[in-house]
Structures
1.
Amino acid sequence: VWDAIWLDLNAVTLEAGAAELGWIGDAALGVAGGKLAWIGPRQQLPGPPASLAREVHSAGGRLATPGLIDCHTHVVFGGNRALDFALRAQGVGYQQIAAAGGGIRSTVKQTRELSEDGLVAAALPRVQALLKDGVTTLEIKSGYGLDVETELRLLRAARRIGQLLPVDVVPTLLAAHALPPEFASDRAGYIDLLTRELIPEAAKQQLAVAVDVFCERIAFTRAECARVLEAARAAGLAVKVHADQLSDMGAAQLAAEFGALSADHLEYTSPAGVAALARAGTVAVLLPGAYLMTGETRPPPVAALREAGVPMAVATDCNPGTSPCTSLTLASTLSRALFVLTADEALAAVTRNAARALGLAGSRGTLQVDQQADFCFWDLQHPREFSYWLGGNACWASVHRGRRRSYEPTRH
Ligand SMILES: [Zn+2]
């Protein structure tokens, strides 16, 4: 006997290779032990619903998709950068904003001032917004602490969020995000701190499953990033790369060399970079929120990625400086408007391919038997409508590990 059965729904399974996203009209979903126990056309159910499950629910004819997966966020931070955004609109340059106390250093300062409780409290409303919009698995990066103590505190705050709210949190260490002021004249010293102390400690305490680096002229060189990624590999952690966002750093190739789960941004990635990602099986994570908010005009090479067969994911990149975005469905729509993904690609980008970008393809991102029972019901008629609405929230209900969610913290 299953725990629950859901009826009166049309499902898209997102199974790889399935036509029309694996559309099943008048479908039924069976859930047992937090996993999907059955999915198919209702008339093929092996018996009357009430005999198959303890609870029988109706989805009222709505569209069901896999639970959404936000595979790139920096959602835990102190303060915000609304003043920077206003100043940029007045034509004040990045350097001047930084000199006036804005920029990433202001976020680092405000983040260091917060306790673990303070960080959790600051992030909770943002995470709740993501959840109400359908997110059931959420990647959270550190990267605004830039010292051992605060980076580990950020990762502990990320873990707490996953304990307080019905969402799976995937924590990533991004200490190679910016050079902290204390190391302004000792770049090698900061890399040493990461490779010798912080990465081994985060791995030992099981606070991160991956290490990310920001490979860019305003952040870290390829050689510096390679040292960090080697340390990650030695510690048994997966790797990811913020790659070629502002210039072609050859960072996609770096990601491929290290067998990265994902290379993210990619606006300036060259054809050689695309080919390297294809060979390595690395997922291209596209971040239209940052593209929009920074006024970037060069989109990532979507046609080349598609042609090469590189799986494309889309994420919010929720962060205070360049993408204060708390809706993954909005990011999905933006990926169509700004990067010309197809409707099918934009839905796969926040489900199946986002799972792969987190190394979770075996358990999430599709509606298949034995996958974790994470799914959403939408007030939508057709899957192409999913990435059509610009804002708003069409998510009627969502189920995480087999349980219908409410979004208030369970305990503190
Ligand atoms: Zn990012």
2.
Amino acid sequence: VAAETAGVAHLDPAVRRLLADAVGAQHVLVGEESTAAYDNDWTGRFRGRSAAVVRPGTTAEVAAIIDICRRHAMSVVAQGGNTGLVGGGVPLHGELVVSLGRMATVGEVDVVARQITVGAGATLAAVRDAADRAGLAYAIDLGARDSATIGGTIATNAGGLNFLRHGGTREQLIGVEAVLGTGRTISHLGGLLKDNTGYHLPSLLCGSEGTLGIVTVARLRLATRHDHRVTALLAFGDVAAAVAAIGRLRSMLEIIEAAELFLDTGLNLVCSAFQLRPPFPTGHAVYVLVEVADVQDPTATLAAAVDHLTGVDDVAVAVDSVQRAALWRYREGHTTAINTIGSPHKLDVTLPLDRLAEFIETVPSIVAMVDDTATTWLFGHIGDGNIHVNVTGPADEDERVDDAVLRYVASLDGSISAEHGIGSAKRSWLGLGRSEAEIETMRDIKRALDPDRILNPNVLFG
Ligand SMILES: Cc1cc2nc3c(=O)[nH]c(=O)nc-3n(C[C@H](O)[C@H](O)[C@H](O)COP(=O)(O)OP(=O)(O)OC[C@H]3O[C@@H](n4cnc5c(N)ncnc54)[C@H](O)[C@@H]3O)c2cc1C
């Protein structure tokens, strides 16, 4: 069910007193005026109503909240920056929201180990800035960097703009502290890189979308900071040429950091939403934004690689940060620009690289066959085979388009969720990506770590 609305959310006064004792009365928010910002998701498609929002300041306080909820059979939704795009972080049925925003400590960078320990509520931007100040980099980056939290990115195993070179959040995660649904606190933050001592619990929690435990602290790997960056926007006449070019660039450029695709319709929308001048005097069908980064100037290397491509109709190159930001605006503006015309159905999918062009060319007609008033917007991290299919027009609760697109993805051996997770939005289709045996195994894990099923009950499983 797409947009579910909780009826009356009620918090027992006795439970409210216990929560207030645990975290301080000022950190228990009750009433629509105080909780509104936590009740609805970023897209506006998923709307809920929380019984209350609690804002713990320590892991011990999170453990106390879980203990209270277990004893009083109250369900809990963990929330970070509430930028998730699959309706996973909102209280659809009157759950208690546990907001990690106060747990935003960013520790000292350990320059020798190239690691940092941070609170789950620290924003991605704060962690990236801290790494930068120490001469290093945190490899995960995404458009919602100023609001998305480390806890949220761990819970969703966020991918982002630099996945191509550095992998996703799981690859950066060395250790976690978390309170499980059992009430147990686990903490493994020592930062040892070689540590084969049984199940790797950080990996299990990463991508679990708040269904197994609440992450409170994380130990993260930092990467080399590449101070020399060059961004190029390449224009193509058709999708096949653009996809072929990405394949060639990936094989020629080890220093490639991002490869993002968007189409002329999306570019026009972004330009009109933000009053931007288009990048080229004439329009082109497809655009690919490529960024390379190195410890020395990579301009000549990128130019030589682009020279080897066929089908490139125009190129804009940016070497300084202002020009680069201007080129990135065309790509990063997509999510916000699409939101200005309605709450979109967001289908974030991966295709095998050899099916990408076929998918991009065909999916708009599949959407139109289901709903001829719908508009399809396509953009994404093409270097990873990851396309964001956004559809505007269908009502929030009308899932016919979602069904058609996700089934098409599965028929091409793709994944129905590349990086946003399953959340509430895609739980009906989990079986398209996972076998019965896999889903049952996931349920076994859920039963073991959250025996009372109080953690994120609306997420992942149908
Ligand atoms: C403009 C824009 C661009 C984006 N670009 C990308 C992108 O490139 N790549 C990408 O992967 N995503 C992207 N996203 C999606 C979103 O930013 C990520 O999913 C991000 O990881 C969510 O972080 P958050 O703190 O906002 O989490 P929330 O939205 O608050 O929560 C997301 C999920 O994580 C759970 N959760 C949150 N905190 C915790 C915790 N401490 N412990 C346990 N569970 C928790 C929630 O219950 C929920 O299920 C984008 C979103 C926007 C709005």
3.
Amino acid sequence: MRIRVLGAAAGGGLPQWNCTCTNCSALRNRQPHIQSRTQSQLAFSADGEAWYLVNASPDLREQLNQTPVVHPDPSKGLRNTPVEGVILTSADLDHVLGLLLMREFTPVRIYATETVRSILQANSFFQMLDRLPGQSRWTTIEPGISFSEKSGFTCTPIAIPGSFPSYVAEEHRIALDGDSAVVGLLLESAQGKRIAYLPALPSVSSSLKSTLSTCSVILVDGTFWSDDELQRIHSMGHLSISGPEGSLAAFRDCADIRKIYTHINNTNPILNEQSRERQLLEDAGWEVAYDGMEITL
Ligand SMILES: [Zn+2]
């Protein structure tokens, strides 16, 4: 299985348009030891031909253009795509806005929980994906229920404690199942190798940790280095990297797993390749995802 990180930054990207933090300023001043990153986006393929997107970021158009394996094939006519489907982990704008960039009438299959689908279909913008019969085809996914596709992978959504995006109206929330507003994904190759993708991770329960310990690779929420990096309200839903309760400590004993941080906020000091925080993380066996990173299972 080939996994490609098309974007490794959290919402806002790096640099973020309105931000003067050390990292964003360093990039604008063309300083070395830091790379720009687009907003979080993953693609994977079990057979090298059919590609699946995980989420659809606001940077999707550029991310697809930068990735030849997902370009259309001129020998297959004017309109075609190797993108077989989009698997959504939440209805957050940073994870779904890119769907609106895929509305040029090529059929697309969207995998989402009933909650995520209901949120999107209640929004008139997303009706642009249904202007032709069969333009978008929805497959409902559920935490803990695996599904397989013929190109040779199995995907199991993992329940993640999460909240509704702030644009969901209060009266709509009452009718929704909050337990499937956010999921992580466990992807398994035909050979039985597993990778987990958790762009939002508020805590690590013992059952989640035992699931992740069956993986060869984990791609984990690296939004913030510490809880005080941004005001508390912004860091909700994202376990920080550092600290006694942080993800670095939570996975300290998982030496056999390849561990990679992704969904990294532009303020996070690990983005500076020469920072003390980056060194601490690398000493603990972690890597930092970047746009274009390829992982083979
Ligand atoms: Zn910044």
